[in-house]
């Protein structure tokens, strides 16, 4: 019997979450760092809560992430069953889709469980035109 199923692996990847609003950027060539120290989600296998800090670094193009809607988006993970790796990659997909940055890097640093701490990082760089 397998301990992990395909349902575990895909849990949360396409679950509905609040939209992320953006506002029009006014300046070129700078980087924004946003730290979200209250990330929580549910392990899809054990049902136990996961805690961590998510840091978003990005170089905006035409749009910047609106912080209140970003907080609501991240808070919605609280009741979502999703693995760390999927959460960080999903955030990257959703945030890039919302603001279309020049580049973005999202890092999750998760509270140790069983003496093991995980750090997950996903990156996006806009392809050259």
Can you give a write-up of this model?
The chain is α+β, with helices and mostly antiparallel strands and 129 residues long. The protein has a single domain, classed as GTP cyclohydrolase I, C-terminal domain/NADPH-dependent 7-cyano-7-deazaguanine reductase, N-terminal domain (GTP Cyclohydrolase I, domain 2). The protein is 23% helix and 33% strand. It has 3 helices and 6 strands. Strand 2 and strand 3 form a beta hairpin. The chain is elongated. The N and C termini lie far apart (48 Å).
Question: What keywords describe this structure?
Answer:
single chain; 129 residues; alpha+beta; GTP Cyclohydrolase I, domain 2; four-stranded antiparallel β-sheet; two-stranded antiparallel ribbon
> Total number of β-strand segments?
6
CATH superfamily: GTP cyclohydrolase I, C-terminal domain/NADPH-dependent 7-cyano-7-deazaguanine reductase, N-terminal domain
CATH fold category name: GTP Cyclohydrolase I, domain 2
Count of separate structural domains: 1
Strand order of the largest sheet: 2-3-5-6
Q: In one word, what is the shape?
A: elongated
The whole-number mean of residue pLDDT values reads 95
The share of residues in helices is: 10-25%
- The CATH architecture comes to 2-Layer Sandwich
Specify the biggest β-sheet: 4 strands, antiparallel
Beta-strand content estimate = 25-35%
